[in-house]
Design a protein that fits this description.
rod-shaped, binds adenosine-5'-triphosphate, binds magnesium ion
Length: 471
């Protein structure tokens, strides 16, 4: 398609054309109406003057007879201007006036007529046009009073010509305007199309150009850019997740496979086979746990879990989780203290919040447990609390362990991140990721504080559930 063809096919140009046609028609109608009305007005004026003159001259005739009329008409006929006069006998013989020849028969019909004529002083010249009134005087004389119409026609033509040119200029200017506006719009749309092509080709970093005029195209571009930014972030996140998964699941799977192979090669007797199989099951359980954790994080991050929210008591969750981990804590010689006596109602996804809190308690038991010398003879203690704080509900888990250095805190919520010091403990580095994702899902946050000594992890959730910010 040629550039011009493309231009003519744009909506902007078509709209311009429609407006132009409507406007030109309207302008033509308006100017035509104006011209006709001007002509009518001039006609009216001429008739009025002629009528007044006929009345005046008839009066002169009535008062002074034909002689007096002839003198008066002679005098008037000599004045320069477009007025026409003629007084004749019954037979048509001219007595006074400035009209030389008339179209035949005009004098015989009293009343109004538009006729061609020649002036007495310009008998050889071109014929002119006039509006005349023929009047029968008592006594058989005839009188004609009229006005030359050339002026009227000239004026009419001037108005018509002006009108025609105005319409032509309007159309030309309109077309030029439409052309330039369309070209501007087209250029911007073309730039956008170019960018979308690069994006479609896989380069998500492209952004649509924004002219900065704040018009509708800019707004569209800004919105699309925001969308692109979001998509890019999501894609980056997905890529990271899949990379992580590939990397972090590959190791245990390879280990699992190698152990099985080794057992097959070297194991002697049923006992050793049994041990190898038990080991395989254990490792597989670990993998399944990791998969489940990943799935749960994905669920929390997708936002679908937002549709599955109800009112529940966070204090009750704290008590349930406490009860669940009580045996494990006891086994490790840790005191697990639950402080959640007063109800703390909150709107959210009960299952996910439970799991998030369980992950925090699990960490506390894992990392702040045995090995920590009893402080003043008191065994290590973990305090789980659930309470309301203004418009928020807080779930906190405080331990007396080594804590997480401030510099590492942003990092530990990422998937598969485990600190060097905790490598001796089992785990896949997904527990805090889920807690953080759950907090985000609810419009809340996961915070770390220093428990001096130890770590205090806080899940803060808005009481009324997530606030939908329009999207
Ligand atoms: N209470 C804590 N005290 C000290 N370090 C902690 C504590 N909680 C978490 N960490 C550190 O943060 C890291 C990430 O924790 P996270 O719960 O995400 O993973 P994990 O416990 O290693 O594995 P998972 O929870 O998936 O079994 C841990 O490996 C540990 O280094
Ligand atoms: Mg954990």
């Amino acid at each position: 398609m040629t550039a011009l063809g493309k231009l003519f096919r744009t909506t902007t140009f078509k709209l311009t054309l429609v407006y132009l046609v409507v406007f030109a028609l309207f302008a033509a109608f308006l100017l035509g109406y104006f011209a006709l009305n001007t002509r009518r007005l001039i006609n009216e004026q001429i008739t009025d003057t002629i009528n007044a003159e006929v009345t005046g001259l008839s009066e002169q005739y009535r008062q002074g007879g034909i002689r007096h009329l002839v003198v008066v008409v002679d005098a008037r006929a000599r004045r320069p201007g477009s007025s026409l006069y003629l007084v004749t006998t019954f037979a048509g013989e001219a007595l006074a006036g400035n009209v030389g020849t008339l179209a035949p028969g005009v004098l015989d019909a009293p009343g109004w007529a538009e006729t061609g004529y020649r002036r007495l002083d310009d008998a050889e010249g071109p014929e002119h046009h006039a509006l005349v009134r023929v009047f029968q005087l008592p006594g058989g004389f005839r009188m004609l009073v009229g006005r030359d119409l050339d002026e009227r026609e000239r004026l009419f033509r001037i108005v018509l010509d002006t009108g025609r040119w105005s319409v032509v200029i309007v159309i030309v200017l309109g077309l030029l305007g439409g052309f330039f506006v369309t070209r501007r719009v087209l250029r911007r749309v073309d730039a956008m199309t170019g960018t979308t092509r690069t994006i479609m080709a896989g380069d998500l970093s492209g952004r649509l150009p924004v002219a900065g005029s704040g018009d509708e195209i800019d707004r569209l571009a800004e919105n699309l850019n925001q969308m692109l930014e979001r998509i890019e972030a999501l894609m980056a996140g997905m890529r990271e997740v899949s990379d992580n998964i590939a990397h972090d699941l590959k190791t245990p799977l390879t280990r699992l496979r190698n152990r099985a192979e080794e057992a097959l090669r070297t194991a002697k007797g049923e006992g050793e086979y049994r041990a190898a199989i038990e080991h395989t099951i254990e490792e597989s359980d670990g993998l399944i746990r990791t998969f489940n954790a990943l799935l749960m994080i994905a669920r929390a991050e997708s936002g679908h879990a937002r549709d599955d929210m109800s009112e529940f008591d966070a204090a009750e969750i704290a008590r349930d989780v406490g009860e669940l981990y009580e045996p494990l804590a006891e086994q490790k010689g840790i005191t697990l203290k639950i402080e959640a006596a007063t109800p703390a109602p909150v709107k959210g996804n009960r299952e996910l919040v439970s799991q998030a809190l369980a992950n925090l308690v699990d960490n506390a038991i894992k990392y702040a447990g045995p090995g920590q010398p009893p402080v003043n003879g008191v065994p290590p203690e973990i305090v789980v609390r659930a309470f309301q704080d203004g418009e928020r509900i807080l779930l906190t888990v405080a331990d007396g362990g080594p804590g997480i250095p401030a510099a590492d805190r942003p990092r530990v919520v990422e998937r598969f991140v485990r600190l060097e010091q905790s490598r001796s403990q089992p785990g896949s580095g997904l527990g805090l990721s889920l807690a953080a994702a759950v907090a985000r899902l609810h419009g809340g946050e996961l915070r770390f504080e220093d428990n001096k000594p130890g770590l205090k992890t806080i899940i803060a959730l808005p009481r009324g559930g997530p606030v939908h910010s329009g999207g």
